[in-house]
Amino acid sequence: MSVRCQVTGKKPGYGNQVSHSNRRTRRRWLPNVQNKRYWLPAENRWIRLRVSTKGMKTIEKRGIDAVVAEMRARGERI
């Protein structure tokens, strides 16, 4: 399963880790993705989402119904 937020679309960032001696090795920065259950009152059921912490803040601000409607418009499977 990929490390990707279903709400914001955040995915790992890639780059170099630079040591004190200035050696460079490839690394990746993973988003803080959590498995979270949300209650959908319109459908009277629970849904499970893999969301980043920024996605959780988005859901808190806009509401789960609005976020789910936008995800469905993008073609995301819920």
UniProtKB/TrEMBL annotation:
Belongs to the bacterial ribosomal protein bL28 family. InterPro entries: Ribosomal_bL28, Ribosomal_bL28/bL31-like_sf, Ribosomal_bL28_bact-type, Ribosomal_bL28_sf. Keywords: Ribonucleoprotein, Ribosomal protein. One of its GO terms (cellular component) is ribonucleoprotein complex. Residues 1-23 are annotated as: Disordered. It comes from Saccharopolyspora aridisoli. The gene is rpmB. It holds the Pfam family Ribosomal_L28. This is Large ribosomal subunit protein bL28. The keyword Ribonucleoprotein applies. The keyword Zinc does not apply. GO terms for biological process: translation. PANTHER family: 39S RIBOSOMAL PROTEIN L28, MITOCHONDRIAL, LARGE RIBOSOMAL SUBUNIT PROTEIN BL28M. GO terms for molecular function: structural constituent of ribosome. The lineage of its organism: Bacteria, Bacillati, Actinomycetota, Actinomycetes, Pseudonocardiales.
